[in-house]
Amino acid sequence: MDSLLSQILNDVKPLVGKGKVADYIPALSLVEAEKFGIAICSNDGEIYKIGDADLPFSIQSISKVFSLILAMEFYGDEIWTRVGHEPSGLPFNSLVQLEHEQGIPRNPFINAGALVVSDMNQSKFAAPDIAMREFLKKLSGNYSIQVDKKIADSEYEHRARNAAAAYLMKSFNNFDNEVEDVLYNYFCNCAIKMSCVDLAKAANFLANKGFSFITGKKVLTENQTSQVNALLATSGLYDEAGSFAFRVGLPGKSGVGGGIVAIVPGQFSICVWSPALNEAGNSLAGMAALESLTKHIGWSVY
Ligand code: GLN
Q1: Cα dihedral value 112, 225, 240, 82, nearest 10
Q2: With 90 as the cut, is the pLDDT of residue 297 above it?
Q3: Which of 8, 15, 137, 241 has its CA at a distance of 20 to 30 angstroms from the CA of residue 102?
């Protein structure tokens, strides 16, 4: 595995730094574009890594997976009355479907969907941002995980689009709490910093029928795990979910911080990170690295 990772690093080197670091959140644009890391975590806890795999980065939309899972524990199938499970085929922050579909977002991995899930968590936890961090600490085994407050504040300052989605949903009665409170907690979740190793470990239960080798417990039932993986495969990369299935062939979730988590069911969880993004807001070198990795090993689930 180590020699394969070196080969992949070599293959994608010319692409590292190509693309554009997200700058619609000003504090996020300060990250160095040239970073690149991969971590692979086997279901028995073996870690393989290369490059900047231990450097914490802004997890951004990867947080949407974990906030959904937190909500699934409390709400079960009730979640699906407020958010759908269809791919949107549109950018992560698009508003056009939301009006047509009466304030019910297509899926929990676009911004509108994640905001509804955050609203549900807001109703259950006195401090949903702390609950989320504690959840990620437990799942990764890293108790020093923190929020980058500068990024959270920068997102809040530039919240117009996310606020528009949330208020539109409120007008359709699909939002229970104060919009501004939910927005800030949602931004705090996006601004959590974790490394590739942390994320590969924290997501490993998705490769292991819901069982976390770190906590020694089931995080989700087997059926719920399959449901989350199906959502990741169809909606985890927004309007690039089709290309990701075609090129990589795994359930996955990206974030505008340049991270992508991917799941090889029954075997491994993977996290790649490289901050420069393609047009769809997904890590350009990260996509290429995952494509090369799955082609070399024949890991596609299709
Ligand atoms: N915090 C970002 C936003 O709400 C998350 C987007 C992403 O990572 N795709 O715009």
Answers
A1: -20
A2: no
A3: 241
